[in-house]
Amino acid sequence: MTKKILFITPALSKAGAETQLVKLALFLNSVGFDILIISLLPQNDYTIDLKSDQIKVIYLESWKSKPFGNLRELNEKVQAFDPDITIAFMFIGIIFARLLKLRFKFKLISSIRAAEIPAKWYIPFKLSLGLDDVVVFNAESSRLRFERLALVRKGGSVINNAIAIPTLKDQPDGGEERSFKWICVAHFRSEKDYPTLFRAISLIKDRDFKLVVIGHLFNQTWPFEMLKELQIEDKVELLGFRADTRSYLAHADAFVVSSFTESMPNAILEAMANRKIVIGSDVGGIQSLVKAAKCGFCFPQGDVDDLAKKMSEVMDMSVEARELLVNNGRRFVEENFAESTVMNQWLAIINHQLSTRTLPEMEIISS
Predict the structure, then answer these.
(1) Is the pLDDT of residue 227 over 80?
(2) How far apart, in Å, are the Cα atoms of 342 and each of 143, 158, 345, 366?
(3) Dihedral of the alpha carbons of 170, 176, 180, 184, in degrees to the nearest 10
(4) How many CB atoms lie within 10 A of CB 132?
């Protein structure tokens, strides 16, 4: 009999955690599991489209207008699907899944994708502690932090993000005479701390470089106002959201991000896979990743002067020095974040929870 896996997520936005959920759902569907995804929020223009992938998705309606209707539909859909395993992503998804488990008795795998828990979810998350069968983190730093704060039971698993390893075509020539091109891929949310990055750029604006920023602006105007105030409009190009960042990464020389909290950022991993030097703030998964991979540099979070200094140092590096760092980053991603490795780690945990081997060990063959 086909085993059923339910995913519960706050939304299916085009962001790092949701991208990982979709990759996992598609993989599990491809190896024979019956998959249902329930999004706690409505579908919108910023939602990942899964119509062509034959994955069943249910979107709840606005909780402000239909809270009781949503609760009724959620219960009805879970009861009708009758999952063997539920995989919950992010804190509110985990809280809902824990409560549903009390009634439906499925196995629960909770996936924590952030380094810190928002204050509004702290109490319900803490009160429902212990209802998970397995807790999966995407960074060792997050696991250690949550266990130290007694927000999860000890013994959680760490499974890295799955990163598609690109073929290295159309990469810039390291010896080519042209403006240095930086790239940042991050939505304009407060935790990404773009003001620090913009102020650092203003300190070195006389140099020959350009920063391309890809990320949803959410109709905010302050980024444009800040660029004008700092007189760096000619240095920074805000492209807004782009569904596919591959071509932009391919034509960049280095990646920079100034977040004040991160777990294991997809954008940095994708930059490393594309052989880009990384500069990031010394927080959470960024610090541990850059240090382990030896692919770039970290600066004290919020330190505008040090960020500007490190950006200048990277632009002044020799071609040979840059090559050493980008090769380190690429190799580290290939060895630790390749999709085939990560998906088989998820499959092993799922099969263990099912108590019997549903499928033989699968290997994804790279095309």
Answers:
(1) yes
(2) 17, 10, 5, 13
(3) 10
(4) 23
Question: Residue 177 is encoded by which pair of tokens?
Answer: 């005479």
How do strand 157-158 and strand 134-137 relate by DSSP bridges? parallel
Q: Is 339 helix (H, G, I), strand (E, B) or coil?
A: helix
The three-state secondary structure class of 111 is strand
Strand segments, DSSP code E, in 74-214 are 85-89, 107-112, 134-137, 157-158, 180-185, 209-214
Collapsed DSSP state (helix, strand, coil) of residue 83: coil
8 A C-beta contact, residue 223 and residue 327? no
Residue 236 structure tokens? 């920074």
Q: Whole-angstrom Cα distance, residue 258 to residue 145?
A: 21
Please tell me the distance from the alpha carbon of residue 315 to that of residue 317, in angstroms, as a whole number.
6
* Per-residue pLDDT reduced to its tens digit, 192-216: 999 999 999 999 999 999 999 999 9
Rounded distance between C-alpha atoms, residue 305 and residue 199, angstroms:
9
Backbone angles phi, psi at 348, to 5 degrees: -65, -40
Domains and CATH numbers, the chain: 4-162+338-353 (3.40.50.2000), 180-336 (3.40.50.2000)
- The mean pLDDT value of the chain amounts to 90
Look up residue 347 and give its two tokens. 């499959």
Condensed to tens digits (0 to 9), the pLDDT of residues 336-350 reads: 999 999 999 999 999
Paired tokens of 269: 């991993």
DSSP for 202-264, written as a single string: HHTTTSSEEEEEES--TT--HHHHHHHHTT-TTTEEEEE--S--HHHHHT-SEEEE--S--SS
User: 35 and 7 in contact (C-beta within 8 Å)?
Assistant: yes
196 and 302 Cβ atoms separated by less than 8 Å: yes
Angle between helices 119-127 and 91-104 (to 10 degrees): 20
pLDDT in tens, 47-75: 666 766 778 999 999 999 999 999 999 99
- Asked if 296 and 325 touch (Cβ cutoff 8 Å), the reply is yes
Can you tell me the distance from the alpha carbon of 45 to that of 247, in angstroms, rounded to the nearest whole number?
22
User: What global pTM score does this model have?
Assistant: 0.81
> What is the rounded distance in angstroms from the CA atom of residue 173 to the CA atom of residue 251?
9
